[in-house]
Amino acid sequence: MMQDKNTKYVVGSLKKFDNVTQKFYQLSSGYLQGSPPSLDQGNNLFTPMLPLAHPIHRQTYSQWKYSMFVNTLFRRKRGRNLYLLPIGPFPADITETEVAGLRLWDFLKGFAAAFFYGLDVHVLPEISLENIDCTKRVHKNTNQKQVLVGDLFPYLQKMCPPDGYSVVGISWTDLYPSEELNFVLGEASFVQHSAVISFGQFEPKLYKDGLRVRECGSEGEDERAIMLLKLTKSLCHESCHLMGLSHCVFFQCLMNESSSMEQAFKQPLFLCPVCLRKLQKMCKFDIRERYHMLREMLIKCCQAVESQYFADSAEWLDRCLSFLD
Ligand SMILES: [Zn+2]
Ligand SMILES: [Zn+2]
């Protein structure tokens, strides 16, 4: 199959892949053409971000590969294990909560193992925030405690077992990125090999004078669905940052930047072809096998909670799989 210039620019050479995989990655050519491929070509699986971003904001596959190469030179931890570290204390109804018959942490582990198919994912024993030396504040809109997220990275880096690639903390307490900013659902440090996500219970935008005035998420999603959505989405997004992926400006994609939870909920749970190519190089999966694994996890989500978002995501995976058949 002949590869056009556009796809070579964003996803690199596809020579070593089978025809169907090549065809799938070729869908990335819709980006520079500024229009989605016609229906029969790609079933509109990916929507380009328009107008086109300045090239300086783009991280193409070859740029990603170069930054990974440099990072590897300085990296001591080179294992293929991704560790999740619950940072409590948590209320009992959270630690005892079950999703599809699994403890919440085990469910998240399963989800990450499907998303990063090829890496091993483990859950470390829960620790308490009180044992970590970090800056805290009480946000004036919500009257709730927040933790300065960057303060957690050195601690997490130390907690990463020798066979680990990275650690992702899962914090019960909300996070903030810097003094002037309100809130962040999660953040990652590629250099410190660690990330933190939170349950994001108290986004200040949803509050006024200490009272919740708006709900987050789209209509019809119940609280449990919103919790799962926040956790799965931020876990996968931040972990991708740990694997060197920058924010995506090519397509609507899990790696798009978002400035609020509302915006995050509008973005897909999945990667565009450009970001997928990077993750595939990192995890070394077959894209079909990975989609099958993810589909299984999404079906579990749909059985556990009522959520249009998860249902739409499962339907999108079905369309991808039929394209790849
Ligand atoms: Zn991000
Ligand atoms: Zn992307």
From TrEMBL:
Does the keyword Transmembrane belong to this entry?
no
Question: Source organism lineage?
Answer: Eukaryota, Metazoa, Chordata, Cephalochordata, Leptocardii
Species name: Branchiostoma floridae
Q: Which InterPro entries match?
A: MetalloPept_cat_dom_sf, Pept_M54_archaemetzincn
Q: Which cofactor does the UniProt annotation name?
A: Zn(2+)
User: What GO biological process term is on the record, naming one?
Assistant: proteolysis
Pfam families recorded for this chain?
A: Peptidase_M54
Q: Cite a single GO MF annotation.
A: metallopeptidase activity
Q: Which UniProt keywords apply?
A: Hydrolase, Metal-binding, Metalloprotease, Protease, Zinc
Stated name of the protein: Archaemetzincin-2-like
